[in-house]
Amino acid sequence: MAYVIETITNTSPVQETALGVKFTNLDSIFVSLYNTQQQVRENLKTLLLTRIGERYMQPTYGTNLLSIIFQPNTSELKQEIQDIIQNPITFWLPYIIIESINIVTAEENPSLPYQIEISIEYSIENFNTDTITIFANNDNTLSVV
Q1: Structural domain of 72
Q2: SS3 105
Q3: Could you tell me if 103 and 79 are in contact, meaning their C-beta atoms sit under 8 angstroms apart?
Q4: Best exposed site among 80, 92, 105, 111 by fewest CB in 10 Å?
Q5: Does the pLDDT at position 47 exceed 80?
Q6: Could you give the CA distance from residue 54 to residue 94 in angstroms, rounded to a whole number?
């Protein structure tokens, strides 16, 4: 998989060509994205929430995050989650630089309203750092912010 990072200098406030799409369940299924940071964020969320073998013609695309995130909390769970996140990002989205992965469980912080909270701080060249947070709720659902 090849990629090219281009610096686009656009003086107009609205870019005319969409860079990609975002899945939403609001008024329409897909929303066009015109901002590089937004598209990188969506690419990262898509990779993390896609199960390995789920994507047609790309059987190794995705992660096992959805399979492991609701497993019983063991001492190895944090390291497994970190590896499950970091390795596919390095392979499929090499333009993303992972700054940190912070994993907090309800066992460590009893006041946490979630079973587990995963914060991924990342950056791309020439852009600001951003964070994606994944919450594994007690009712076995995921929230991504």
Answers
A1: 20-144
A2: strand
A3: no
A4: 111
A5: yes
A6: 21
